Amino acid sequence: MHRENSRPAARYGLIAVAVLFLALFLVLPLAAVFGEALSKGATAFGSAVTEPDALAAIRLTLLVAGISVPLNIVFGIAAAWAIAKFDFPGKSLLISFIDLPFSVSPVVAGLIYVLLFGAQGWLGPWLRAHDIEIIFAVPGILLATIFVTFPFVARELIPLMSEQGRDDEEASLSLGASGFQTFWRVTLPNIRWGLLYGVLLCNARAMGEFGAVSVVSGHLRGITNTMPLHVEILYNEYNFVAAFAVASLLALLALVTLVLKSIVEWRFDYHRGGAGH
Amino acid sequence: MSSPLQMPAPGLAAETRGGSRRSQSIIPGFGLTMGLTIAWLSLIVLIPLSTVFIKSAGMGWAEFVAAGLSPRAIAAYKVSFGTAFVAAIINAIFGLVTAWVLVRYQFPGKRIVNALVDLPFALPTAVAGIALTAIYAGNGWVGQYLEPLGIAVAYNPIGITVALIFIGLPFIVRSVEPVLEDMSAEVEEAALSLGARPWQIFFRIILPAILPALLTGFALAFARGVGEYGSVIFIAGNMPFESEIAPLLIVTQLEQYNYAAATAIATVMLVASFAMLLLINLIQAWSRKRMDG
C-alpha cells in the first residue's frame, strides 16, 4: 500500500475536496432528476410515463438501440479482428478513422446526413422520386445514432485483442478447428467482458443521444421522437414534471449501466482495476 | 500502459503498434473482416463527413467567410471555445484531485465514488441539461441561494461552463488514473526523506510524470466541450453574441434552411476538432518518446 500514514490532514482534505466536487457536480443533478420527477407525487409520474406519446418515444428509443447496438457489435468485432490479428500498413490511420466520431460534434453528425439525404441534399431528389424517407424519419435517426456510437465496441476490443495476441487462435487452428469454431470457442470467451463493457457504453449512448438525433428527427410527436427528444419537448412546454419523469427513466438506465459496468470491473478484474489496487 | 484506456483517447495506436510479429499468419478472415470494416467505415463515417468539406469547397471563399466567419459565428466560437477552456481547466484541477484520491487513498464509499465518475458518460446529455437548469435557475435548488447574492449561473456563459464541467470530468480522471497507478511512491518517499516539501514533490516529481496524461485528458475534455450540445442548450440562455454556442448556431441555421451557413460553421468546427486530435496525438508521441528515452 502507498504511504497512507504520511499526512492525514492532507489526505482527508483532498478526499473532502474530491467528494464535495463530485457531490456538487454529479450527485446533485442526479438527485434533481428524481426529485423533480416525483415532486407532484407518484400519480403524476405514472401518467407522464404511460401517456401515448411517451410510450411511443420509449418504443422508438428501444428500436433504435436494438438495431444500432447489434450492428456496432458486428462491426466492432470485425474491425478488432482485422486490426489485432493481422499486420498491415496504415493500421494507426485506420484506428484514428474509427475514433473519428468521438471528436465530431453531435450536431455536425446530424448535419452530414441532412446534407446527404435531406430535401436539398445530394441524394434528396432521387430519394423523393422513389418515395424513400430518411431525414425526419426513423432511418435518419438510426444513421445518426450509429454514427455517434460507432467507435464504442471497436475501441474496447482493439487494445484487448491486441494484448491477447494470436497464440490461442493459432493453437486452435493448428489443432484442426475451423475459423468459426476458433472464433466462437476461443476468441469470444477471451473477449467477452471487454465486449460486454463496450456494449454497455454503446447502448447508453444509443438510448441517450440527443444532438445528432435532434437534427435529423423533425420532432414529430409520437412518430420520430426518441426519449431524449420527448424530454426536450415536454420541458419547452413547461411540463416540467412530465419532462423529469421521462428523464428519470433515462437516469435509471444510466445508473443500471454504471452498476453493470462496475460489476464487470470488480468481479472480473476487467480494466484499470482502480478500485481494489 | 498495459491496460486499455476506456476513454476516447486516440492512444490505441500506441498499444497495437508494439511488438513485431510474423507477417505470415494462419489465422483466417482478414479479407472478410477488413472488407467489412472499410465498407462500414466509409458508408457511415467517411463519405458522410466528406459532404461537409465538399459542400464548403463549392461555396467560394467570400461566401464561406461570410457564412462561417460572420460576427455572430465568431461570437459563438468565442463562447464555445472560451467556456470549454475554462471548464477543462477547472476539471484538470478537480479531476486530478479525484484521480489522486482514488488511486492513493482508501476510504469508505470509494467504489461508489469510482463508479460515479463515469456518470457523465452514461447519463443522456439532455437529462443532465434539464437537471443542471433545475439546480441553477433563479428559483432552483442552488440558484435560489445564489440569486440574493447577485450570482446568476443559469442562462449565461457561467451556466454553459457548469454543464461542460459535468460533461468533461471523467476524461481527466480516467486519463490521469492509470499513470498515477503506475507511478511508484518510492521516488516521492526518497524526495520526502531528503527534506523536500510537499509542494516541491508535487511540482518537481508528480506533475512532470503525469503531465502528458493530464494534457491528453484536458484536450479530450476541451474537444468534447466545444462540440457539446444537449447538456448546454437548456442552461445557456442561447442569446446570440452572448450565450449562443456554435453547435446551436448550426441548428438555428438549419432550421432556417440556411444550409450553406450551417455547413460553413460545421467546417470550422471540424477543422478545430481535427487540430485537437492532432495535438492529442502529438502529446502522446511526445510522452512515449519521454518514457522510452
TrEMBL record, chain A:
Domain ABC transmembrane type-1: 58-261
Entry keyword annotation includes Aminoacyl-tRNA synthetase: no
Cited function: Part of the ABC transporter complex CysAWTP (TC 3.A.1.6.1) involved in sulfate/thiosulfate import. Probably responsible for the translocation of the substrate across the membrane.
Subcellular location, record wording: Cell inner membrane
Complex formation: The complex is composed of two ATP-binding proteins (CysA), two transmembrane proteins (CysT and CysW) and a solute-binding protein (CysP).
Transmembrane segments: 12-34, 54-81, 93-114, 134-154, 240-260
Keyword Cell inner membrane: yes
Molecular-function GO terms, alphabetical: ABC-type sulfate transporter activity
Matching PANTHER family: SULFATE TRANSPORT SYSTEM PERMEASE PROTEIN, SULFATE TRANSPORT SYSTEM PERMEASE PROTEIN CYSW
Membrane topology: Multi-pass membrane protein
GO cellular component, one term: plasma membrane
Protein name per its UniProtKB record: Sulfate transport system permease protein CysW
Record's keyword terms, sorted: Cell inner membrane, Cell membrane, Membrane, Sulfate transport, Transmembrane, Transmembrane helix, Transport
UniProtKB/TrEMBL annotation, chain B:
Region spans: Disordered: 1-22
Protein name as it appears in the record: Sulfate transport system permease protein CysT
Family listed: Belongs to the binding-protein-dependent transport system permease family. CysTW subfamily.
Keyword Transcription among UniProt keywords: no
UniProt key word DNA damage: no
InterPro entries associated with the record: CysT_permease (IPR011865), MetI-like (IPR000515), MetI-like_sf (IPR035906), Sulph_transpt2 (IPR005667)
The organism's place on the tree of life at top rank: Bacteria
Localization per record: Cell membrane
